[in-house]
Specification:
two-stranded parallel ribbon; 2 helices; mainly alpha
């Protein structure tokens, strides 16, 4: 699932704390910062979500008999 943080001004303090504290302490790897996208424009948020699912090969309504989706996998969480 893509991690998209909407509002660069809002998230900049937390992300800087990750860089200043968590990375030097070895609690996260510097590459972990690439797991998140900070996006301000709603249209770009939608594009990023759609691109993730297109790149992962998942389609809405696909018949995947080997791994049927569980309800908790279909939910989006917002902060």
């Amino acid at each position: 699932v893509p991690i998209i943080l909407v509002g660069s001004e809002f998230w900049q303090g937390l992300l800087q704390w990750f860089r200043d504290q968590l990375i030097p302490m070895g609690l996260i790897n510097p590459e972990d910062m690439n797991l998140m996208q900070v996006i301000d424009d709603p249209d770009q948020v939608l594009d990023a979500v759609l691109a993730f699912y297109e790149d992962s090969g998942e389609e809405e309504g696909s018949d995947d008999d080997d791994h049927p989706p569980r309800p908790e996998e279909d939910r989006m969480f917002y902060l």
